[in-house]
Amino acid sequence: MSRLTIEIDPDQHRKIKTLATFAGMSLKEFILEKTLSSKSSRAEDATTKLLESPKNAARLRQALDSPDSANRVFESIEDLENALGI
After folding, report:
1. Does any domain span residue 2?
2. Does any domain span residue 1?
């Protein structure tokens, strides 16, 4: 077995750890999934996981109820994460 070490700042670590937790994965599982899986299945799985959380669903409803919601489009997971405030 090989070991991989990278240096990231604390904010990057927190964000990756948060996303892994939302996905129900360890950091290792999350990073391997993100780097070695096909993009379409990753986006679909991440969206499903994000929306399964009642807290995130409430945040999304709040974002969609905002005055600019008629023009709101989520073209990526990053767009959705920004709307959810994560």
Report:
1. no
2. no
